[in-house]
Each structure stands twice: as structure tokens, then as C-alpha cells.
Amino acid sequence: MSNPTLTWNLVKDVHELLAYQFMVNALQAGGIVAVMAGVVGWFVVLRRQSFAAHTTAMMSFPGASGAALAGLPTALGYYLACGVAALAIGRSGGAQRRGRSGTLKGTSESAAVGVVQVAGLALGFLFLSLYKGVLEQLETLLFGTFLGIDSDQVLTLAIVAVLVLVALLAIGRPLLLSSLDPEAARARGLPVGLLDIGFLLLLGLTVAATSQITGALLVFALLVAPPAAAQALTPRPGLSLALSVVFAVLVMWLGLGISYFSIYPLGFFVTSFGFALYVAAKLASGATAALRHSRQAGKPMATLV
Amino acid sequence: MTRSTSAVASAHTPAIALRDARASIGGRTVWSGVDLSVSPGEFVAVLGSNGSGKSTLLKAILGLVATAPGAVSVLGGPAGAANREIGYLPQRHGFDSTLPIRGVDLVGLGLDGARWGVPLPFGRGILDRGGTRARSRARVGEVIELVGASAYAERPLGELSGGEQQRILIAQALVRRPRILMLDEPLDSLDLPNQAAVSALVQRICAAENVAVLLVAHDVNPLLSYLDQVIYLAGGRALQGTVQDVITGSKLSELYGVEIEVLHTRDGRLVVVGQPEAPHVHGHRHDP
Are strands B16-25 and B28-38 parallel, antiparallel or unpaired? Predict the structure, then answer.
């Protein structure tokens, strides 16, 4: 196989991409993970739970390396570690939500979570050293890879994605209400605490799946950047959810496609595209807000329009 | 106050009735020996200083704060059994300015937010039987019209002013045609013209939809010309009656157990002088 080069003939490029099974697997896995991250991330951004998502992602690193050390499948390590992290955050975070007075309490909790994050990273590093793995593995776990995804892995990801999406579909409206207005939701008889924990578990599954492709450190590129961009563009929940999924898939596939032809790693491209999308969406929403403001003030925007 | 008498006469079962009720949170008794009765179509303000248990009263009616069995009766049943008939607006401090949700979406959640199942607007179209979706959309439009929020209901919530957000929230509480409406400090953080406008709006709804309204407030003055009755909480007890009956120097002195003076200003406003702040109140607004 000669070194692949990106040409201006897109059909030929795509054709070349799809010629290898490992690349097809990567595109399938990436697509599945992106759809899941786009939907779950939409709720993460709405509920302002980016920090929880980040923590869960951090814990996937010791989970995966610990599993490798113990001779278990890495995927199992991912799911176990993320599930446990989600439950732990749910326990502390649930209390935090209930106590209304607690900005101070929230701060001390986020400090505690920060310490646990660092400890998790260190532990993961230790597991890898004990495992006597090569440095390449560290890089893969932290920054992701698209090589060596087999079809079994794709199937597992698909099953997890279907589970997560069906569960979200079932609890969607109550989750949305309790995210926006927990007190009112509680008065309506909704189990707000259970919804909180349930969502964190779904988040844990999603992070575990996503970090297998993007690596533990770059989960955010898929989980937060696309939904944040979508929510900056439109206040319509249905539309921004759909946009979020489209953005996530776009970022993922574009990243995969380009990194195939490039010598630079996947994580760099996925993250850069996510970041660029977010910045562009923020600029666009800022511009429309300014435009509307000046229209309300009655000033013509002759220079722009 | 002719409205209150006619409302009482027309409906024999009170919407809300408390008999010798007592509420405690974390071992501390907030109030006890409370007797209250609110009829359908009555507009009642819940007054009292910080920590006197105003929000606790609403939560007791919702069954979220435990009370002795039989002490609290809501629409003829125990507290918490008829919550779907109650529109509740919790105390809040405004929405995050970047919250990417429109007013109509929040009102719509008032209608179906507690329902499990397919949550997405584009999922419902195919399975929609009998025009449920069209009907709920019409109801949302109607209630937004009722609170006068049509002009800005399509804009993101975070961009709205406090008064506009409050109207949207009242619409959300009203959308399922509740028989009881409970609003926790809806006038808080509004400017004076908006306080008056929201008070007038609540009275209009109360009369038009024949709902019993409990409105928690710090200051009775913006509400004076609209109220049927007040419930005054202080010193762990409660007094109910018309403004003229309850907000007097002698009644409040008895309730608080210290000398209280009620001044009437020339423009008809009431000023309560000398009320002690309840204990355990810190800097932030936090009514247990």
C-alpha cells in the first residue's frame, strides 16, 4: 500500500477510504459514537454538566489501563469505570442539586472531583507502567485511534448506542423538564433524583463508548462542542438536537477522512473541527443577535447587509 | 371584597383546607396549629417575613413536606394526591442568560413534560392520533395569549426580561387548566410596573378560570387592590382574613408577640413597622 494522498477528486478519495475494512469499521464506529454523543451531549450542555462529563471521561483512562493490566477486555474497563464514576457523581451531585443554598458547597465538591480526576489519571498511568505497555498505548488511550477497530467492537458500540438512545427517548420529556425546572418537576411527581442518576449512567455509557475512539482526553470534542454549537445557533429544541447530531457525525467523519490521508493523529482533527464549529456558531449567533439588536434600535446595518 | 363572599357561597368544598396543621423541616417546627381555607376562584396572598414558612406552606399543600394525616386537604383529598390539578411556580432566580430554550417550549413542557415516551417534536407527527399535537399546540398558544406573552414566546428564555419570564412561567403553570395555582414569590425581582401588571394578570386569571390562587409575596402593597384574602405567617402560626382584618397593629402584634405598628400612607399603601426577622435566616433568600 502506497502512502495515501488526498487529491482534489473527492469521489476518488472516498473510494480509497472505503477500500479498506479497517477504515469502514472506523467510519461505522465513529458514526455510531457521534450520533450517541450528539444526543447525550445535547442534554449535557443544557444541564450544564460538562464538568461531570469531563470527570467521567478522565476515569475511563484508569478503567481501560486497569482492565489491560488485569487481563480483561479494555472495553469492559471503559464501561465499568465510567459507570462507577457516573454513580459516584450522581450521589454527590444529587445532594448538591437538592440543597438550594449551595454555591459554596458546589465549589468544594468540584474541588474534590478535580482531585479525584488527577488521581484517576495518575492511577491509569501507573497501571500502564505496571502492564509494561509501550508508550503508543498511552497515547491511544488518551488521544484516541481509528486503527484496529474490529467488527465485534462496532457491533458492541451499536448495541450500546441503541440502548442509550431508546432509554433517552423514553425519559426525554421528563428529563428536559427536570433539567429546566427541578422544583416544578418534583411537584409534578417526577422522580428528579432518579432521573439525574439515570442520565449520568447514560452519560457514562456514552463516554465509555466515545473515548474508545477519541481517547479519554478528547471526548469533549464530540460530546460538548457539537451540541454547544447547535444550541448557540437555535433555541428550538428539536432543531438544535438534530443539528447537534449532524455536527457530531460531520466532525467525526471529516476527522477520520482527513487523518487517513495525513500523518497527524485523529484526535487533533476531530478536536480542531469541533472547536472551529463551536467558534463559528458562537460568532454567527453573536452576529445575528447584534443584527436584531440594531434592527430593534432602528439603525440600518448598511455595511453588513 | 364582594368577590370572596360570592366565591365562598358558590363552592362548598374548599380547594385547600388546613386543620390544626403542623409542618417541620429537619426537626424544627416551622408552623403549627394552622387553620386555613381557600375556595375556588379566591385570590389569596401568603405573607410573612423570611423563614416564616411561606414556601413550606405551598410544599405542604403539594405533599412535599410531611404533615399529619387529615390535617391538609386539597380538592377534597389528601395533600399530594391531586397534584396534577395544581399549577405550581417555584421560587426562582431567573433563567441563565444563555439558556437555549424558547418560551413556547417551556409552556409546552408544562403540558406534557411529565409524560414518558417519545420526547421529540418530529417523532410525534407520524404516531399522532386524533390531533393531540394540534390540540396541545392550540392550548399552548391560547395560554400564552392569556398571559400576554405572544410577542416574545418564540424568543430564547434567557434573553427575556424578568417580567416576561414570569409571564411565561405563569403560562406554564396554567397550561393544564389547574384548579389551584400556587406562585412562590412571582413578584420578586420585578420592577414596580411589572409587579402591578403581574398582580392584575393573576387576578384576571383567577376570576376567568375560577382557580384558587395562593401567591407568596414579601410585600402586600402591589397586590392590595386585587386580593380577596391574605394568610399571614409569623411566630410559627398563621392568620387568615381580609387585608383590613389581618394587617392591623393589634392582630400582627399578637401574632409576632412583639409590638407591631401598621401605618397607612396617603396613597393607600400599608407599612408594617417593627416586625422581627425570624431566626436562622442568612444573607441569601432561602425560605425553608
Answer: antiparallel
Instruction: Look up the pTM and report it.
Output: 0.83
Q: Is B164 on the interface with A (CB under 8 A)?
A: no
Looking at the DSSP bridge assignments, the partners of residue B279 are: none
Domain range for B78 is 2-97+178-273
- Taking contacts as CB-CB distances below 8 angstroms, the residues of chain A near B101 are 46, 180, 235, 237
Q: Is residue B113 part of a domain?
A: no
DSSP string, A269-297: HHHHHHHHHHHHHHHHHHHHHHHHHHHHT
Q: pLDDT of B36-74, one tens digit each? A: 999 999 999 999 888 889 999 999 999 989 888 889 999
Per-residue model confidence (pLDDT) at position A272: 92
Which CATH number fits the domain that encloses residue B200? 3.40.50.300
Cβ of B257: how many Cβ atoms within 10 Å?
Answer: 12
Closest CA to B89 of B168, B196, B163: B168
Concatenating the DSSP letter of every residue in A221-247 gives: HHHTHHHHHHHHH---HHHHHHHHHHH
| Residue B81 dihedral angles phi and psi, to the nearest 5° | -80, -25
Question: Which residues, in sequence order, are bridge partners of residue B270?
Answer: B264
Q: Which domains does chain A have, with CATH numbers?
A: 23-296 (1.10.3470.10)
Query: What ipTM did this prediction achieve?
Result: 0.78
Torsion of CA B128, B121, A220, A20, to 10 degrees: 50
Q: Is B19 on the interface with A (CB under 8 A)?
A: no
- A-interface mutation test, from B116, B152, B281, most A Cβ less than 10 A away: B116
Coil, strand, or helix at residue B261? strand
Which H or E run contains B9?
A: helix B2-10
Which amino acid is it at B175? V
Contact B236, B195 (CB under 8 A): no
At A123, which helix (H) or strand (E)? helix A103-130
C-alpha cell at B130: 386524533
